[in-house]
Amino acid sequence: MLRIKSILDNSQPEESLDVHGWVRTRRDSKQGFSFIELNDGSCMSNLQIVIDKEVPGYEDSIKLVTTGAALKIAGTVKESPGKGQRIEVHATHLEVLGTADPETFPLQKKRHSFEYLREIAHLRPRSNTFGAIARVRNAATFAIHSFFQKNGFINIHTPIITTSDCEGAGEMFHVTTLDLARLAQVQTEIDYSQDFFGKPASLTVSGQLEAEIYATSLGPCYTFGPTFRAENSNTTRHLAEFWMVEPEVPFADLDDNMRLAEDFIKSVISYVLETCKEDMEFFNLRIDKTVLETLHHILEHEFHRLSYTDAVAILTSAEKEWEFPVEWGHDLQSEHERYLTEEHFKKPIILYDYPRSIKPFYMRCNEDGKTVRAMDVLVPRIGEIIGGSQREERLDVLEARMKECDLDPEDYWWYTDLRKFGTIPHSGFGLGFERLIQLLTGMQNIRDCIPFPRTPKNAEF
Ligand code: ATP
Ligand code: MN
After folding, report:
1. Are 83 and 189 within one domain?
2. Which of 10, 330, 382, 397 is 20 to 30 A from 444 via CA?
């Protein structure tokens, strides 16, 4: 079956074809024919259909051709005399496959707010913006796999249900088959030995620990899977369910890790700019007038690297009223991250060597006793898009750090085993896929960068 993208790109006048799609608009002329703008999601552009009243069944069918209705058209390609399209299709046959009552169809031609469109997430992919986002997501997914595959990485499927808390932040969704309603009535201590896995389990916050297992056996690895965080943060950059890309590289230090992160981001941006031209022009026109410029600027400049300590010095001497105070030893807030990348350096930056007190146990400790070999990649408009580190490969230091973080090394016996048997330096990072989609599309809210967003009090569809 021909898709509209291929028809618009390749079809020649006098070709006969069938086409299927949904009506964007219909316009009737006084001379007794109608114009239909048909879209099938294969590209942003609509195919113009011209249908004459002589076409069998025109009188009965045409009034059902309303915005949202599904059609099958048979016709002949003609050169289009009108502006804006090379060709159009003159229908010889029209079949209305599914009607859409104009009184109740929720997605009318007018511009709707993104908030409204979130409430009709089952229909929003039929809008220009959400069709384009879906296609860009698809292209970015392909670019990610292709970047790693070209560079010899192995894709690993890490578990979604886990019994370890990678970030140690405790923001996890519990997985249980216990009867919560009954437990609530008896009000005793919960006996997890009665639960499905015989101990507390949750949805994963990261595939990193398991990716490390494979990276220290097979070489460079990556995961690209769903990740869950029960953080109650109603921001434009947080989802409860998001997709994360996590490469893990053996025999790599933090410098190697930074280089990989930069090459990786640039390669995905280049691919999307090249393959999604029409959608990217749409974002630049309708969503954010600077998105193309920003992306080209990112491609053309080296990411600036500086230590967390130097960043704090810049922030404390900046002439700015911060909502959150800047102090060495505290996590940087979005406003600080964005100031550094948008205003101070005006390009992506990589901050490294963060205070160990604010970072997880697995990051490699520096000799200064105060910092760890962490790195965050910060980009304009988003702030943090990547968080990563060189991993602690020294068993004694790792166990000491676990205790410092109130973790029992026994619970991570398999992770410490990797340091007992053939330990090696290694590094990796996690990129939030939806934050990358925000960067690529210029969309303000991360909820619009995933088909069905999950956020506090919201898991419809
Ligand atoms: P932040 O400080 O922005 O909340 P984080 O430091 O908790 O992020 P990491 O644990 O470093 O995040 O996770 C790696 C990457 O995953 C982040 O750089 C970000 O791109 C993405 N990410 C983290 N949390 C979320 C979330 N709740 N929704 C979407 N993406 C997220
Ligand atoms: Mn982080």
Report:
1. no
2. 330
Residue 176 has a CB neighbour count (10 Å cut-off) of: 16
Task: Tell me: do 41 and 132 sit in the same domain.
Answer: no
In a domain, 49, yes or no: yes
User: Distances in Å between the alpha carbon of 22 and those of 36, 190, 257, 277?
Assistant: 10, 53, 46, 23
Domain membership of residue 246 (yes or no) is yes
Same structural domain, 407 and 309: yes
Cα(399)–Cα(396) distance, rounded to whole angstroms? 5
Residue with tokens 């690209």: 224
* One domain for residues 315 and 187: yes
Best probe residue, ligand 1, of 208, 239, 391, 435 (max atoms within 8 Å of C-beta): 435
**Amino acid making up residue 114:** F
For residue 168, what pLDDT band results from cuts at 50, 70 and 90?
low
Does residue 341 form part of some domain? yes
Query: CA of 385: how far to CAs of 90, 232, 261, 268, in Å?
Result: 48, 19, 10, 13
- Assess contact for 423 and 398: CB atoms under 8 A: no
Q: What is the CATH number of the domain that holds 165?
A: 3.30.930.10
Same domain, 63 and 143: no
Q: What is the pLDDT of residues 173-185, one digit of tens each?
A: 999 999 888 887 8
The boundaries of the domain holding residue 139 are 124-448
| pTM, full prediction | 0.96
The end-to-end CA distance of the chain, in Å, is 29
C-alpha 354 to ligand 2 mean position (Å):
11
**Is residue 241 lining ligand 1, measured as CB closer than 6 Å?**
no
Residue 374 CA to ligand 2 center (angstroms) comes to: 9
- Cα–Cα distance between 27 and 287 in angstroms, integer? 27
Q: How many whole angstroms from its chain centre is CA 97?
A: 34
Domain tally for the chain? 2
Exposed e or buried b per residue across 227-262, where buried means at least 16 C-beta atoms within 10 angstroms of its C-beta: bbbbbeeeeebbbbbbbbbbbbbbebebeebbebbb
Is the pLDDT at 443 greater than 80? The verdict is: yes
Confirm whether 439 is domain-assigned: yes
CA-based R_g, the chain, Å: 27
Q: Beta strand pairing status for 426-432 and 70-79? A: unpaired
* C-alpha triplet 11, 17, 18: angle, nearest 5°: 125
CA nearest 88: which of 54, 46, 27? Answer: 46
pLDDT digits (tens, 9 = 90+) for 17-39: 999 999 999 999 998 899 999 99
Q: For 48, what's the count of Cα atoms within 13 Å in the CB-facing half-sphere?
A: 17
On whether both 93 and 150 belong to a single domain, the answer is no
d(CA 367, CA 426): 17
Edge-to-edge strand list for the sheet holding 201-203: 161-162, 201-203, 174-175
Q: Reduced to 3 states, what is the DSSP secondary structure of residue 256?
A: helix
